[in-house]
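Title: Prediction job returns without error message
Component: structure pipeline
Severity: low
Priority: P3
Assignee: unassigned

Description:
Job completed but the reporter wants confirmation the result is attached to the right record. Sequence as submitted:
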Amino acid sequence: MSNLYAPLSSLDRLNLGNEPLHDSSFGIFVTDESGLLQYLNEEAARILGFKNANDALEYSLHDFEMNTNCGLSDVFDNIIAGENFKKTEHRCTNRLGHYAVLNISLGPFRDDGGGISGVMGTIWDVTESYQRKVKLEEADYVMSVISQVSEALASAAELNDVLRIILTGVTANQGLGFNRAFLLLINEEENILEGKIAIGPNNSEEAHEIWSNLAGQHRTLLELLDDYRETEKNSGFSTSSRIEDWKIDLNKPNYIAEVFESGSGIIVNDGVETSSESSKIFDYLQTESLAIVPIISKGRKLGIIAADNKITGKKITQTRLDLLQIFANNSAVAIEHSRLYDKVLERAKELEEINCQLANSQEQIIRAEKMSVIGELTSSIAHELRNPLMVIGGFANLMISSGDAGDNAEYLNIILSETQRSESVLHQVLDFSRASRTSSREIKFNALVKEAYDYFQTKTKFRQKGIYLNLSEESAKVWGNPDQLLHVLLQFIHLTAEGMTDECKAKITTHGACNKVECKKVRLTIEFTGSQQARDNAKKIYDKIFGSSEGTQRMSLIVAGETIKYHGGNYGVENPTNEGPILFIELPAMRVSEDD
């Protein structure tokens, strides 16, 4: 514009009334020293709001300032004094109230002598280019927000993480800038929406505290998304907790059901004629205006995002609704991926459990084969040894009974006693071998213990001893070979009774059961009561049996121990301080059914 401000003697010297200035694409005007228009072209007249240039003559530049409010009145004297003035992309209205964005340049108008006789200026109407620029900036902003949210979502797998990131992007000032956002997901079985997560303050005091903290941190949206857990801490759990138990029936008419039907978002205001169900939504969220968009993936309804500006009261525009819908579309993909990830993890867990079951089954098969071989081997050896022992014992008994023993009577009694003891061992081995042929099944543990106890009391010489039974009231079951387990219980009761004195008493107790959720161990204990000396003696007996016992006791313990391990159990002796020893047997409990 510097060439327009050269010293001129009159308006004629500018040739302003002729082409090209008069019909140019930008407005040009000249005023006198007081600001009255002396000349303007057609474009300037249009921008100022006149039908033509003649109608604008005598119109004051100060009148123009009243409409544009660009600060001309403050700088007019400076321009007359020789200064230039420029303002770009100034948003204003003309004398007719039409909106425009203008680039304005003003400078002094000089005569032949170089004196200033008025003001000369140009006006460019850049409304269209400005709007295109704003749209491009908005598009660039939207792409930036979406890109940052997508980047954060790419590293999130769990559903709660995905939902939190999405709502952080909706409410952050660096994102869409809504005050509050709510996310509900659909329960397809019941056709209801269930509240999942929300972000935002409940009141202005909470908003001031939250926004002040975030503003002081000067973080980008991506930094907020990466650190969304801290944002969660600062964003008011009260809002999120408000919708955790919220359910919306989609079978009843309401705005959200309409959104699902149309597949596009809406802006709704309280007070407009609505259904009772829609009014409940506004009452529940305590808001007056709400943007609602559906989350739909490949025709499948997943949920909705609702957002408002309860704190600031800022109007929700269609542009912001469209951006919220873009977020919802991205949310659909992220939610589907998260659910797929959860299914993959669940399937991997199932496969891991199946592999464990296969490994356990294989181990059980090996143990079963091992027990079968042991049973066959022991049965074969027992039968081979039994006949010679019977012959030896028979001849020894015959010599004693005939009175021909003489000086060898003592030796013959020893032979007879040892053969009887050996036959007792073989009897136990044969009992175990026969038990191995019974199939495994479900066993009521208390009933099995009671059977072993009753058999012990009625069939053995120890029935006068002080061994008492205390069965648990809980219903406990185990899986196994009932004959083998009965044999084990009898062996441990026999081992206990053989070393007991008259002063020592023992109590057999069952413990534990399996609940509906988790299978636990079923436990049997044999503990001693009586004097301290009696309990000390019992401890010595157990130390001997489970330490370096030999002969019949050792054989019985080996067979019983292998049987317990075969059934997945364990056994041993505990020695609590200042108490007698406690013999225990543990077996895996079966899950108790609903009917038990």
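Comment from assignee: result matches the submitted record. The chain has three domains: 2-125, 134-342, 438-588.
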